[in-house]
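Example: Histone H2A.
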Amino acid sequence: MPDVTPLITINYCSWLAVMAIVFIAIGIPIGVTAACLINVLCRVREYVSYKESKRRELESRVADIYIPEKPAEE
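Written out as structure tokens, the predicted fold is:
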């Protein structure tokens, strides 16, 4: 009876290689997409923070400049 151990080993190794290639082929785009989404979320958060600080600055300027007139006392 012929020894089939080398064939099993070759098939097992090729199966592992195929699985590794598939995981890499799927994992890299998912990783890149996740990194891009995280980058976008961080930029949006920074932009919102920037706009809020500008709004507060403008409100404080308006409060410093605009003094509402008191109604005339009779």
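The mean pLDDT is 84.
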